[in-house]
Design goal:
Number of helices: 8
Helix content: 40-55%
Low-confidence stretches: none
Strand content: 5-15%
Structural class: alpha/beta
Order of helices and strands: HEHEHEHEEEHHHH
Mean pLDDT: 92
Oligomer: single chain
Strand order of the largest sheet: 1-2-3
Number of strands: 6
Number of domains: 2
């Protein structure tokens, strides 16, 4: 970009580091930028940040990420300063959600509510129903209508091939299956790596303070 966005991001990370605030870089993996992964990992190590790699999902007419480029994410998933969710990769490699055996539980794991008070079902990106909340939401969750809606989660025709991580990732923890296990292992690794980096930051700040004093 022809502005100072890069410099501003670098400056913001340094400010966050000195304040002891957590920060990370989210890298949306596309077919056009997959070869930039090694350089991004080096940058995150230099700046004491986690590189969170998320595959690009189809929505705005884009084609999503090729399998060969998903493999590039898998290849670096265990490297320092890197977070890749193996559950996400598995869904993408399978071609997205499958209505006959849904990985997505939009409307269960995630609720989309509009600013004017409507439940957007099953999700914000594919609205089949707009339900006005004119009563207590907990009471609505106890109705037969809501229970019937839950049975359709991830099973609409338009749910086939969808790989929207806004809904798929939270859905991993809705049911115990292989995606649950893969995602949990990745998230546990993320937390360990985050704590390691935070310790690294504290040590480097202490060294800098001694050098300055």
């Amino acid at each position: 970009r022809r502005d100072n966005s890069y410099d501003s991001v670098i400056e913001s990370m340094e400010i966050a580091r000195r304040l002891g605030e957590p920060y990370q870089i989210i890298f949306v993996l596309t077919n056009d930028n997959a070869d930039l992964l090694p350089g991004m990992i080096d940058l995150c190590r230099e700046k004491q940040a986690i590189l969170k790699i998320q595959p690009e999902w189809e929505y705005f007419g884009n084609d999503g990420v090729d399998i060969k480029n998903l493999q590039k994410a898998r290849d670096v998933a265990r490297e320092k300063n890197v977070y890749v969710n193996w559950g996400e990769l598995r869904v993408f490699e399978a071609g997205g959600n499958r209505a006959e055996k849904p990985a997505c539980r939009a409307g269960n794991a995630v609720l989309a509510i509009s600013p004017d008070g409507y439940l957007l079902y099953p999700c914000y990106h594919k609205i089949a129903q707009r339900i006005k909340f004119d009563r207590n939401i907990i009471s609505f969750f106890k109705t037969d209508r809501w229970k019937q809606m839950q049975d359709k989660a991830g099973k609409f025709k338009f749910c086939d091939d969808c790989s929207n991580l806004c809904y798929i990732h939270p859905s991993f923890y809705y049911q115990f299956d292989r995606n649950f296990v893969l995602s949990a292992l990745a998230d546990i690794r993320y937390m360990k790596e985050r704590h390691r980096i935070e310790r690294q930051r504290r040590k480097s700040l202490a060294v800098e303070a001694l050098a300055a004093g």
